[in-house]
């Protein structure tokens, strides 16, 4: 009798898990992002000027409350809205590992300096 009760409980739990997965899949239909994630929608590169590449990217994010689209480790990410509001860009760790981050003088963006001296400048529009 105990075994039968345990099997019914296990079957009920399995059915519950299955229903949760089905409901979750319905909420995350194709084209929707999970909360707290971003994806790159467009990426354009312009190398027409010597020794200079201008890259523009557009990202789509589904951020949680209190977050806004930003950049972490050179990838789009949801970051604390305070960082964007106060323009403390380096607080979101926008540079790759080993690079140094510095704010531009007018706080319109930041620079990432690689150990070899190469500098990548990012401006926010």
Automatic annotation (TrEMBL):
Keywords recorded for this protein, A-Z: Signal
InterPro entries: Chemokine-like_TAFA (IPR020350), TAFA-5 (IPR040329)
Span of the signal peptide: 1-25
Domain of life: Eukaryota
Pfam families found in the cross-reference section: TAFA
Similarity field: Belongs to the TAFA family.
Protein name listed in UniProt: Chemokine-like protein TAFA-5 isoform X2
């Amino acid at each position: 009798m105990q075994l039968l009760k345990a099997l019914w409980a296990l079957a009920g739990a399995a059915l519950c898990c299955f229903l949760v997965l089905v409901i979750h899949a319905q909420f995350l239909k194709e084209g929707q992002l999970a909360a707290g994630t971003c994806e790159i929608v467009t990426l354009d590169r312009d190398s027409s000027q010597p020794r200079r590449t201008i890259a523009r990217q557009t990202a789509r994010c589904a951020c949680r409350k209190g977050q806004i689209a930003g950049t972490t480790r050179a990838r789009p990410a949801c970051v604390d809205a305070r960082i964007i509001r106060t323009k403390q860009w380096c607080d979101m760790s926008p540079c790759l590992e080993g690079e140094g981050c510095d704010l531009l003088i007018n706080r319109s963006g930041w620079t990432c300096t690689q150990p070899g001296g190469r500098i990548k400048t990012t401006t926010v529009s």
